[in-house]
From TrEMBL:
InterPro entries given in the database record: DnaA_dom, P-loop_NTPase
Protein name as annotated: ATP-binding protein
Pfam families: Bac_DnaA (PF00308)
Domain of life, source organism: Bacteria
Keyword Transferase in record: no
Gene Ontology MF terms: ATP binding
Keyword ATP-binding attached: yes
UniProt keyword list: ATP-binding, Nucleotide-binding
Gene3D superfamilies from the UniProt entry: P-loop containing nucleotide triphosphate hydrolases (3.40.50.300)
Domain Chromosomal replication initiator protein DnaA ATPAse: 59-186
Organism: [Kitasatospora] papulosa
Length: 208
């Protein structure tokens, strides 16, 4: 139910506006403090987040450590949320996970999550954002890779977007997520693999 800001909103539009602001604030509350500030992001990430007609469905941010992948992804996810609400009138769900926490949560012996419920939630979320996909030093077991396959295959066949940050390319993570997930990610992110270049900003000396 988009409307322009110079018109007096109808009661229905006011309710919609409130719900939109609530959704954006909830997302901001779930955002780790250092990623909350508004930053300018790479034009391709910006296009993706604004659902431009020729933008890819999914975005895979890659590049060396400290180049700004995670900051870019959080900013892009905020913009994606606002755009999607404006475009569809729906309040989309976003699941955000650091890969190491995700792999832990999907382990068969994890007591905090029910694997079936979590798998379903991650299959159905309107956007799945996984940060630092290749970060795990120990690759997930076959069982966890099976859950990842269930999640990514369901998203793949239903054309549901993913937002990934990773310091290697989709084709180089088979040993972590398994061949089938790696292959699907390659296709889901075709045209949406964005290499961020530059120095490690954590070491300072690089202007924003
Ligand atoms: N667009 C940006 N403008 C200014 N500083 C940034 C920007 N993106 C990232 N940074 C800074 O760069 C550092 C690394 O960012 P981060 O997103 O964690 O990198 P990566 O995920 O690639 O390792 C942080 O200190 C962050 O504050
Ligand atoms: Mg990062």
């Amino acid at each position: 139910m988009p409307f322009s800001s110079d018109e007096t909103p109808t009661p229905r539009q006011s309710v919609f506006r409130e719900r939109r602001e609530d959704a954006i604030n909830r997302h901001l509350e779930r955002t780790p403090a250092i990623y909350r500030g508004s930053i300018r992001i790479h034009p391709d990430a910006d296009e993706w987040s604004r659902l431009r007609d020729d933008a890819p469905l999914s975005l895979f941010l890659t590049g060396p450590i400290g180049v700004g992948k995670t900051h870019t992804a959080w900013q892009a996810s905020r913009q994606w949320l606002a755009t999607t609400i404006g475009r569809t009138g729906r309040m989309p769900s976003i699941e955000t996970w650091r890969s190491t926490a995700l792999f832990d949560a999907l382990r068969p012996d994890n007591r905090d999550y029910d694997a079936k419920t979590l798998t379903r939630t991650l299959q159905r979320a309107d956007l799945l954002f996984v940060d630092d996909l290749a970060a795990a030093r120990v690759s997930p077991t076959g069982w966890t890779q099976e859950r990842l396959y269930e999640i990514f295959d369901e998203r793949y066949i239903n054309r549901r977007p993913v937002l990934i940050t990773c310091d290697v390319l989709p084709g180089q993570i088979s040993h972590i997520v398994g061949d089938r997930v790696s292959s699907r990610l390659g296709e889901m992110c075709r045209g949406g693999v964005l290499l961020l270049e530059g120095d490690d900003r954590r070491k300072g000396g690089v202007a924003a």
